[in-house]
Amino acid sequence: MKEQILSDLKNKCQNCMKCELGKTRNNIVFSDGNPKTAKAILIGEAPGENEDKTGTPFVGRAGKLLNEFLEKAEISRAEDLYIINTVKCRPPQNRVPSDAEKAACESYLLKQIETINPEVIIFCGATALKSFYDKKVAISKIRGEVLELEIGGQIRKCIPIFHPSYLLRYHSLEEGSPRDLMLKDLKKIKNLIK
Ligand code: URA
Prior knowledge:
Oligomer: single chain
Largest sheet: 6 strands, mixed
Bound molecules: uracil
Radius of gyration: 16 Å
Mean pLDDT: 97
Strand content: 15-25%
Distance between the termini: 24 Å
Structural class: alpha/beta
């Protein structure tokens, strides 16, 4: 049932021309992970060059770093997560997707959330956070907090975390460093979904 709904939705996205991104994409980037076993949805920003080439989210440098952190937190990318982005098509030059592009994609995102019905939604980075949380707050101030937000007519537990692209710039593992906080946040998520 879930598979059928998601496969119909994927077909729809493959033909989508609701915004300008449809003209320049090579592939839509629909999702990664196992819809049957996923307990959390991770929402990133937008596909980059590698994702546009392969059709899979988080496969470039940022994705590899995300994988390392997931492994350290003992979260299985393949079984525990369903990974999507705020938009399904790559914005040219990897710019941040516009409000109009996010709005054009929103119904697909909400259908995926409703179909997976996860225990937790992870906002990976400021773009995902801003798409669902209207208060102006820096990701560094709110990361790791469990927010209860109404998404698709249901109150859902949501946790913002740093985006791995941001962590590529900070290498320290010191207490309180961005990488240390990322691991702590993912371990908290692991506890919520186990
Ligand atoms: N960054 C994102 O936010 N999403 C991807 O899929 C890849 C890089």
